[in-house]
Structures are given as structure tokens and as C-alpha cells.
């Protein structure tokens, strides 16, 4: 049976990840602080802290993978018609960008932005859902989460 304090601490753990919108890396810093001070006192808080950090690390990994795919594609579509000699001499001009290149650039950029925004919206709603479940005393495991901490 979980106490009201454990439920509140676990709920704050989930909601502390929303600090990423105000403090850079707050979604890692604040949950780690809360979890580190409370994990030995409650199994419920320990489980919740691990789930929160696993989910945040998973979202970071998904974002890095998205960037690792999108950035090279974007660079290729920009520089596909440019030779190394033009780059060395600095004679690369924007007029070399054809409509086909611009379409490719736009598609890569829009797809990457759409996927990143979708990932962030899903993350936001899952955090709120997890906080509600945790405040009711339920142990919540995030979907799409990789178990880095066990």
C-alpha cells in the first residue's frame, strides 16, 4: 500500500520532466535529484524514478536517431550538385540550388520537424497520463520506453 507522500513524490517526479520547457536539461536534472533523495525510502518512488529516467533517455535517443537520419539527408540534398573544387574555391552560389534540390530540402526538413513535433506531443501527453496514474497509486510503465535502468 502506497502512502499519500509516496504518491505525491512519484507524481512530482513525472511532472518534473516538464521543466525541460523552461530549464535546459531540466527533464533529467530534477527527476534525478528527486529520485536520488527518495529512492531508498520507497519502492514505489524508486520504480517511478527509473521509469521516468528511462522514458526521458529513450526520447533523447529517438531524437538523436531522427537527427542522425535527417541532417545527412539535408546536407546531401543541399550539396548534391556541388563539386569539391567549387567548395574549395568558394565559388558555390545559391543559384545552383535547383527547384528539385529545394523540394528535397523542404521535404526532409518538414518530415523531420513533423516527426520531432509528434514525438514531443506524445511525450507531453504520456507524462500527464503517467502523473495521473501515479497520483492514483498505480505503477505506470511508459510505452516506447527502453529499460536503461532496471
Alpha plus pi helix count:
5
Helix percent reads over 70%
| Secondary structure: number of strands | 0
Number of domains: 1
**N-to-C CA distance:** 22 Å
Strand content: under 5%
What best-fitting shape do the alpha-carbon axes yield? Answer: elongated
What is the residue-averaged pLDDT? 86
What's the main sheet like? none
Question: Secondary-structure element order, as H and E?
Answer: HHHHH
> Which structural class fits the helix and strand makeup?
mainly alpha
Uncertain runs: none
Radius of gyration using CA atoms only: 22 Å
Transmembrane segments: 20-38, 59-79, 99-132
Membrane topology: Multi-pass membrane protein
Main location: membrane
Protein name: DUF4870 domain-containing protein
Topology:
Layout: H1 4-15, H2 26-38, H3 43-79, H4 84-89, H5 99-135
Helix pairs in contact: 1-2, 1-3, 1-5, 2-3, 3-5
Protein traits:
150 residues; 70% helix; mainly alpha
Compose a concise summary of this entry.
The chain is mostly helical. It contains 5 helices and no strands.
Structure description:
- By secondary structure, this protein is an all-alpha fold.
- It has one domain.
- Helix content is about 70%, strand content about 0%.
- α1 (about 5-15) runs antiparallel to α2, α1 packs antiparallel against α5 (about 100-135) and α3 runs antiparallel to α5.
- The radius of gyration is 22 Å and the shape is elongated.
- It starts with a helix and ends in a 15-residue tail after the last helix.
- The mean pLDDT is about 85.
- It comes from Flavobacterium suncheonense GH29-5 = DSM 17707.
- It is a multi-pass membrane protein.
